[in-house]
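Would you be willing to look carefully at the protein I have copied below?

:::
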Amino acid sequence: MNLTDVPVPDLVPLPVLLPLLGAALALAFRRSPRLQRIVSLAALAAVVVVAGILVWQTDAQGPQVLWLGAWQEPLGISLVADRLSALMLLVSAIVTLLVLVFAIGQGQADSDDETESETPLTIFHPTYLVLAAGVSNAFLAGDLFNLFVGFEILLFSSYVLITLGGAAARIHAGTTYVVVSLLSSALFLVGIAAVYAATGTVNLAQLAIRIGDLSPGVALVLQLSLLTAFAIKAAVFPMSAWLPDSYPTAPAPVTAVFAGLLTKVGVYAIIRTQTLLFPDSPLQGLLMWAALLTMVIGILGAVSQSGLKRILSFTLVSHIGYMIFGIALATPQGTAGAIFYVAHHITIQTALFLITGLVERLGGTTSLDRLGGLAVASPVLATLFFVSAMNLSGIPPLSGFLAKVGLLDAGIAVGTPLAWLLVVGGIVTSLLTLYALAKVWSQAFWRTLADAPRSTETAAALQDGTLDVEPASDPATAVLVDTSPRALPRTMLGATAAMTLVGLLLTVVAGPLYAYTQRAAGDLARRQPYITSVLPVEVRR
């Protein structure tokens, strides 16, 4: 019997259970790094397979529900896999697997470094697997409290991962991240309490029925409380200032998985609650303004930066605005564009942060003032960056272009002045993204050392010997690097290439994938497929 013959509800909890089981085994094997790696890779590879089956079977059979425990429905805990959550599971599982491969390659390459602490190496694998379980639980949660639990699982794991190594800058950035996360979690918990007080339930399907019976004022307060908590987690302006200061200091694989996934869990929660609980939202205009300001202010921040990590952190904030753009339109076409954009952005943003980790390894820095000639030093790395940068910028015919076209077309179809303003803002943001990433390409990869400017910091570093020039037969092709440059390990480079190829694969399968997201958006707009799958007939009232 193969997995496709297993009843689908029996597969639904596996994306949560497999990483948790793997985390327990990895912790038990803490004295054997090799066994830890095997267990972690096996657990996440199995999640990829299960998520792929769920995508196929939920598309064919509709939402799949598993009630946990012996509680009478709908009082128990439900895990729900529909087209939206199954797609998010698949993309997140692929990302976590490839980032883990990258992290394993980095750990092997640094194994001879005497400054490495054994504790981070011991706890990384179980903590990372718990993070993956939390992400999966958030996507599958069928009630608000289980969604809160999913957030807390992934957040507590992220607190450990973001501070691995214990450097002062990392601890400081981690403190900011922890404080903001705790604030958003507290707001979310207050929102859950308010929802339960007003409706007597936290089950999402039952809430979809009962919230319609509330007075408009009460429903608006509940919506604002949930939306505020999710907006902080998703880094929506003006609640996005924490992200550029938090992510750049973390280790490369941690930053990559954070950038790819954590904010998207917040976006997923906004999509789920806005479409299921508040389909006729009076906050549509507010969301449109938030989307516009997130796009424009985020990309202006990216343009003004001189460090690659901060540039990418600000573009991450900026492109969250595209997703909120699609949600704010409140049409099936806009929702489909937002879902497609989430899938695209998870893969591309992760690839770019992995590439940044390799740039830092090769050049000893991510400051554009101290880099040059990387295209000569590593043509493969230059190619990976160029492809991913063009994809994020929306150059045709890549998936970034297709995702943006879908959103812009949805905005034009709505046709209101604010929707048209969002369309213009989306185009400007795309052009400025291209400018910011072209600056990175020009300065870090394309220019030669002879063309690199000598800032005061760089000149001082050259003078005191902390910065040196890698020997080259032609000085014009030399690379400005740290005094101890490290080669690019094949495992790390291979994982980064695979992540970039996943982004390109989205372009190849864009037609079927966009059709899938349209079906998912149609289900979200109708709401009935979700409600009837979760609730017994006698409680649909």
Summary: Residues 112-119, 454-485 have pLDDT under 50 and may be disordered. The longest strand covers residues 64-68. The two ends are 40 Å apart (CA to CA). The CA atoms of residues 26 and 79 lie 26 Å apart.
